[in-house]
Amino acid sequence: MTRILLLNSGPHSDVSHGYRLATEAIAALGISNVQITERDLVESPIPPIDRAYAIAVTSQATPDAKEFEWSERLIVELEQHDVLFIVTPMHNFTVPAALKLWIDHVIRINRSFHATPQGKVGLLKDRATFVLVSSGGFHVGERAKQTDFLTPYLRYALASIGISDVHFFPLQGLVFGTEAVAQAVHEVRQQLSERLSERLSLT
Questions:
Q1: Which of 11, 140, 159, 203 reaches 20 to 30 Å from 166, CA-CA?
Q2: Residue 7 and residue 136: Cα distance in Å, rounded?
Q3: Distances in Å between the alpha carbon of 163 and those of 79, 113, 142?
Q4: pTM of the complete model
Q5: CA 190 to chain centre
Q6: Residue 53 — pLDDT band, cuts 50, 70, 90?
């Protein structure tokens, strides 16, 4: 069985272009034995890191401490899936707050990474990860007018817990009318389908 965790962090939820592309691309693969777990980070928000959590981390509390309840739930959920799909908009040059909260809970010392003199060493198994990034303007390519902080940040954050097989798909120019949206969706659909077929055939 192929187990896919689909994180949706945009305000448009299941009507966003990115979400529709993700679900269509997965369905088009025709995998008969697939389990998809969807987590909408906006519709069902994750609580922020609080003082109790911070104290538990610095006091090296056990992994089953109640302060880590949400963190542990999200890490275990990630561990139970073979493939990670992240659907996210670009908000003010980087990831939206909803996705940042997920990252903050999942990156936890002595649980998802070890700290070493050379930096963080991930403790989770690598897995094929696909990131659909929606933006009104352009942040990749010749028409880009702003710096892309999202891609390097998210790539680095995931690598810190052991996930380096990450593939980004920019869904750009979504405020430039119906034709621009259709063109963007068409281009990403083809790229995503090709990469999905390539990577999931190896799982």
A1: 11
A2: 20
A3: 11, 11, 29
A4: 0.92
A5: 20
A6: very high
Angle at 11 between CA 135 and CA 189, to 5 degrees: 50
Q: Is 30 exposed, middle or buried (0-12, 13-18, 19+ CB in 10 A)?
A: exposed
Q: Which tokens hold the place of 131?
A: 């990131």
Burial of 165 (0-12, 13-18, 19+ CB in 10 A): middle
Query: Is the dihedral angle over the CA atoms 196, 200, 202, 203 positive or is it negative?
Result: positive
Give the DSSP per-residue string, 144-175.
--S---HHHHHHHHHHTTT---EEEEEE--TT
Q: With the CA atoms of 55, 59, 62 and 63 taken in that order, what torsion angle do they form, in degrees rounded to the nearest 10?
A: 50
Give whole-number Cα distances, 68 to 37, 106, 202, in Å: 21, 10, 34
pLDDT value of position 141: 75
Task: Tell me how crowded residue 64 is: count the other CB atoms within 10 A of its CB.
Answer: 8
Q: What is d(CA 110, CA 86) in angstroms, rounded to the nearest whole number? A: 24
Euclidean distance between CA atoms 136 and 1, whole angstroms: 36
Contact of 112 with 158, CB cutoff 8 Å = no
